[in-house]
Specification:
heterodimer, A: alpha+beta, Alpha-Beta Plaits, 2 domains, 4 helices, B: alpha+beta, 6-stranded parallel sheet, globular
């Protein structure tokens, strides 16, 4: 956990790689997908209170907090459990996705993945599915950043944040 | 294990398999249910070891379980059930078959489930202080999975009701009580591999907003792995609820027809999902049940706000106690009278699959799907219909190939020698950017060419449809796929998205997601010879819209 907080702090000090309102892209089985980073909202899947923020919406175990772009950047560094909210579709009001930590990877060049991860000080674990890996990252911006970096590696077929998205009982 | 008070009806309900004994039994059950007078009577001292079997049914709530035997109780139509009893009479009860219940939990110590749960094999994915193999809910609101489990495999005894496959064994995974993530979905969908033959998934993308749903790459890969490699390649049978979003209640009690379809749900569009719709006790489709070309078949469940009955099944201990049901207090802890949704239909289908696999363990998931489609019965008032090449001759996007018939399915399972190896043919409908005509329509065709499939099992259509200048993406589009046999998969219809206000009303909202990378799954053409020209038709496009790519993957033998 301390390692994750440190990573988040470093990310905050370095400035966000991805600005609120920006389109974030990832890869699934060779197809590029995208979502918009909601500039006005952060979310939490834990019970930690968000200092000074009010819950604007709750979707089962996820609390959404209204914020603004500048504050969102501050929160990225200071409260790593407050996650950026990404919105699928054409607007920043579409269905939500949260990067809860980790990046799902499938690659034709596992050696390159392993070497890169070692260089970055990141752990790669086998997932529950044959041929898929989970690069361990902190939740939030760290996961987005690692995803973007992985897209540059040779042989990558899938590099996607370990997304949390809405599901319902029927 | 918690001590549970066991309250039985005033007299045991004894039904013989031959005569049903419905009159006396029903009267007894009705007496117990009206005012619960018998609930105040003595406990009989029946224990979980009390016996019940195919020929002597002592489960006190069995007479209420119209989905197993519909005698017209509570206003239903006699005969609208899954035709179970001949299967039980033949000695089949699901023994030897293990089923995963992926849900919000499973009360593995429930008095009517404990003997049918694989102790130590479940998975607790929530951080709730319980053991890692104990998915028993800690919140009363997480009672969904326990009800699902009871419909599959509640024990045949002197307690509650009984499951369709009352000899099968369950394990539970409380995915929906844990933090959602793609990796967790995959873990849940493959939990119990090596042990389970069936995975029941009475959940999916949100039903309430009409947006295209999302499923992660790991979850999709998990289903593919489970279906293609487990059970020595015969695969885990993945059943998914088709979705309940075709109607929504407004705050004034009125019913909104939403236009939601199962084909807008990502999990339901995986090529390996057996999607189950709901039919209510009068034999017509439940209004809320979402239509789609990916709907395989229907099973019994409740209705939308009518007087027709719900499903009687297990629940977490006090969840439904004293709640009103049909004007009276429900007085039986550990059970509920009102389960439903496509959530309820799906485990009923899962139970039938367990019986089929007990009858013939060599069946693959493809065989199961083929047999269910071949043996399903016609559903009254089913909509979006067309001729089918399999089964009773009609496919309905609302009800699939029809209402599951356990007796017919098991009979066919017993003699089925297995489908030949699957073949796959890929047709390219659009390899370069295609724009609509002046009427906003786009029609593309592709020939099956050298494809040697003679009987189709499924068709999967991918679309990369761009709508850059369209303020209302997806909403005006109608998308259909026509086979060479002039049969149509209705994939999308014009619809709005929805947002719920503070008063609980559903309001029209612009859709945000597009078909920029979408895959539709269709079982509508099962049994057809796919030779010839396939045609994709899209209407409602703006001049600025374009189709960047589209492929059709045909699977069959």
């Amino acid at each position: 956990m301390k390692k994750f907080i440190l990573a988040a702090l470093l990310l905050g000090l370095a400035g966000p790689l991805l600005a609120a309102g920006q389109t974030f892209r990832w890869l699934e089985n060779g197809i590029t997908r995208h979502a918009i980073i909601d500039p006005d909202t952060r979310a939490s899947t834990t019970t930690t209170a968000a200092n000074g923020l009010t819950v604007s919406k709750q979707d089962k175990g996820v609390r959404f907090y209204r914020t603004d772009t500048a504050r969102s950047r501050q929160l990225a560094a200071r409260q790593p459990d407050l996650l950026p909210v990404l919105r699928e579709g054409k607007t920043n009001k579409g269905p939500w996705l949260l990067p809860v930590g980790g990046v799902v990877v499938r690659t034709q060049d596992e050696a390159a993945l392993a070497a890169w991860a070692k260089q970055q000080g990141l752990s790669v674990q086998a997932s529950a599915v044959n041929g898929y890996w989970l690069v361990q990252t902190a939740p939030g911006e760290a996961a987005l950043k690692v995803t973007s970096q992985l897209l540059q590696l040779p042989g990558i077929q899938t590099a996607a944040p370990n997304w949390s998205g809405p599901k319902e009982k029927r | 294990m918690q001590t549970r008070h066991i309250i039985t009806l005033a007299t045991a309900v004894l039904l013989t398999a031959c005569g049903g004994g419905g009159g006396g039994g029903t009267t007894t059950a009705n007496t117990a249910n009206t005012g619960g007078s018998n609930a105040s009577g003595s406990t009989s001292g029946s224990t979980a070891s009390g016996t019940s079997s195919a020929s002597t049914i002592n489960d006190p709530l069995f007479a209420r379980q119209w989905h197993l035997k519909n005698t017209g109780q509570e206003g239903g139509t006699a005969g609208v059930d899954i035709n179970m009893q001949p299967v039980w009479q033949a000695g089949l009860d699901g023994s030897g078959i293990n089923v995963a219940v992926i849900d919000d939990g499973l009360d593995i110590n429930h008095e009517d489930l404990v003997l049918n749960t694989l102790q130590g094999s479940s998975l607790n994915m929530a951080s709730n202080g319980k053991a890692s193999t104990d998915p028993t809910p800690v919140n009363a609101s997480d009672d969904h999975g326990t009800s699902v489990g009871g419909l599959i495999a509640a024990v045949a005894n002197t307690l509650g009701g009984r499951g369709v496959a009352y000899g099968a064994k369950l394990l539970g995974v409380n995915l929906l009580a844990a933090n959602s993530a793609d990796s967790n979905d995959a873990t849940a969908l493959l939990h119990g591999k090596g042990m389970i033959a069936i995975s029941n998934n009475s959940w999916g993308n949100p039903d309430s907003d009409n947006e295209l749903g999302y499923s992660g790459p790991l979850a999709k890969a998990a289903i593919e792995q489970g279906a293609t490699t487990e059970r020595g390649g015969k695969g885990i049978v993945y059943l998914f609820a088709a979705g309940n979003g075709a109607t929504q209640f407004q705050s004034d009690g009125s019913v909104l027809q939403t236009g939601q379809r199962s084909s807008y749900d990502s999990f339901n569009n995986t090529p390996y999902a057996l999607n189950i719709a709901a039919v209510q006790a009068n034999g017509t489709p439940s209004e809320y049940s979402e239509p789609g070309a990916n709907v395989l078949a229907s099973a019994p469940s409740d209705s939308t706000g009518s007087t027709l009955p719900g499903l009687y099944t297990t629940t977490v201990s006090l969840a439904k106690l004293n709640s009103l049901y049909r004007g009276q207090n429900w007085l039986f802890p550990n059970y509920r009278p009102d389960f439903g949704g496509t959530s309820g239909a799906t485990p009923i289908a899962a139970g039938v699959v367990a019986l089929m696999l007990q009858a013939n363990p060599s069946l693959s998931w493809r065989d199961i799907r083929w047999i269910l489609a071949s043996t399903a019965r016609s559903v009254s008032n089913a909509t979006e219909t067309g001729a089918s090449a399999i089964g009773h001759g009609v496919y309905s996007h609302k009800a699939g190939f029809g209402l599951i018939d356990a007796n017919a399915a098991v009979a066919m399972a017993k003699i089925h020698t297995g489908l030949p190896a699957m073949k796959t043919c890929t047709l390219t409908l659009a390899s370069s950017t295609q724009s609509p005509d002046n009427n906003g329509q786009l029609q593309l065709a592709a020939s099956s060419g050298n494809c040697t499939i003679s009987k189709l099992e499924s068709a999967d259509l991918s679309l990369q449809l761009n709508q850059p200048g369209n303020p209302n993406p997806a909403e005006q589009l109608a998308i259909q796929l026509d086979s060479p046999n002039a049969r149509t998969s209705i994939l999308a219809t014009p619809h709005t998205c929805l947002a719920k206000n503070a008063q609980g009303d559903f309001l029209v909202n612009s859709c945000s997601k597009t078909y920029s990378d979408w895959a539709f799954h269709s079982v509508r053409h099962m049994g057809e010879n796919p030779a010839g020209q396939w045609t994709l038709k899209i209407s409602g496009m703006l001049a600025s819209d374009n189709l960047a790519g589209s492929q059709l993957v045909l699977r069959g033998f």
